């Protein structure tokens, strides 16, 4: 991120920063996928990774804690989707166990932060 940009509500959220940092990881992981997967599993992995960060950002820009919470649940669902896609890619031989384990560890951290933020917002409602 360019530090000269104006501050946005989601910039201060660790879950958004980690999700934002995961997107290039997802793209890198899919570069080794076979060409026939370019528009299938690779695309799904990239879209799900992008969805996490975009839903956190969109929710943070909403007017109410309830709306924000709804978008955080969507983001958390995308994290769960990513977990399954990564395991499937490993099973199909597109990723190594080490690659999958490292990526899932990052996603587990993001999911934990999302859960904590959801609980915090729900307590305020």
Features of the shown structure:
125 residues; mainly alpha; de novo design (two linked rop proteins); 74% helix; Four helix bundle protein; 23S_rRNA_IVS_sf; 23S_rRNA-intervening_sequence
Can you characterise this structure?
The structure is a single chain. By secondary structure, the chain is an all-alpha fold. It has one domain (12-124): de novo design (two linked rop proteins) (Up-down Bundle), CATH 1.20.1440.60. The chain is built from 4 helices and no strands. The chain has helices at 14-30, 41-60, 65-91, 97-124. The longest helix is centred in the last third of the chain and has 28 residues, at 97-124. The N and C termini lie far apart (32 Å). The mean pLDDT is 94.
List the helices and strands and how they pair.
Elements: H1 14-30, H2 41-60, H3 65-91, H4 97-124
Helix pairs in contact: 1-2, 1-4, 2-3, 3-4
In short:
This protein is mainly α and 125 residues long. Helices cover 74% and strands 0% of the residues. The longest helix is centred in the C-terminal third of the chain and has 28 residues.
Query: Can you write the helix and strand succession as a string?
Result: HHHH
CATH fold node name:
de novo design (two linked rop proteins)
Largest sheet entry: none
The top-level CATH class is Mainly Alpha
Shape: elongated
What's the total number of strands? 0
Specify the structural class: mainly alpha
Q: Gyration radius, to the nearest Å?
A: 15 Å
Number of domain modules: 1
Question: What do the pLDDT scores average to?
Answer: 94
Number of helices: 4
CATH level-two architecture: Up-down Bundle
Give the amount of beta strand, in percent: under 5%
